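Try this one yourself first.
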């Protein structure tokens, strides 16, 4: 009876872990469906993002793009590929560089940029004063000395907001979701292993019982069979 209870306990624990793993995986994968992961290319967004750093991008609509967002977008020539930059101006803004304090201004007000590499807002670029058309955005890298951005893009420098693919999520939410998937995967594997062990043990016990029938408690010992006499 003890062995039977042990096998049932293994199978029960395995089924519980399987259920927990399935629920956990479903609960964490669904939110992750709105994210994509890309590696930062180049050093244009240092010191915040170094080359090769994984970056989680949350899918956003054109109306959700705001000043200060770090976005993944399809850049016009001379870049011509997906890249990440910071939104400095949106439709209707006037972006200029630079004031007497060598700061970028938006609608005439100096922009506070604590994220800049070495505090350099100019980056050796010539002065500019851009009126951002509606439906467009003006983007700059945080490392202004090493960034191909709206200062150098063809077609006036601004980018259609529809070209934005996602917004960088710098919170702990994506990492927590990934951790949840990992823990749920471990629970699934452990549950499947326990259930399998219990099932195999049950089958082995059944085969053994078939070969050697158990004697009911209190039954007299079975007399050994006598050899058949030969005439």
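Now uncover the answer:
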């Amino acid at each position: 009876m003890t062995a039977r209870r042990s096998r049932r306990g293994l199978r029960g624990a395995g089924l519980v872990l399987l259920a927990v793993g399935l629920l956990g995986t479903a609960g964490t994968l669904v939110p992750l469906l709105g994210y994509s992961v890309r590696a930062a290319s180049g050093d244009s967004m240092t010191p915040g993002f170094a080359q090769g750093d994984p970056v989680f991008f949350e899918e956003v609509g054109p109306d959700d793009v705001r000043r200060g967002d770090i976005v993944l977008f399809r850049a016009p020539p001379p870049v011509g590929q997906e890249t990440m930059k910071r939104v400095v101006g949106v439709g209707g803004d006037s972006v200029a560089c630079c004031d007497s304090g060598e700061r970028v201004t938006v609608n005439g007000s100096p922009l506070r940029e604590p994220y800049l590499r070495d505090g350099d807002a100019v980056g050796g670029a010539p002065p500019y004063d851009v009126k951002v058309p509606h439906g467009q955005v003006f983007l700059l890298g945080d490392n202004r000395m090493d960034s191909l951005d709206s200062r150098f893009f063809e077609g006036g420098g601004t980018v259609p907001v529809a070209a934005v693919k996602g917004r960088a999520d710098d919170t702990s939410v994506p990492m927590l979701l990934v951790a949840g998937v990992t823990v749920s995967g471990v629970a699934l594997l452990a549950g499947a292993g326990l259930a399998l062990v219990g099932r195999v043990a049950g089958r082995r016990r059944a085969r053994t019982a078939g070969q050697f029938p158990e004697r009911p408690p209190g039954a007299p010992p079975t007399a050994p069979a006598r050899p058949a006499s030969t005439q």
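Discussion: The first helix runs from residue 2 to 32. The first strand starts at residue 35 and ends at 39.
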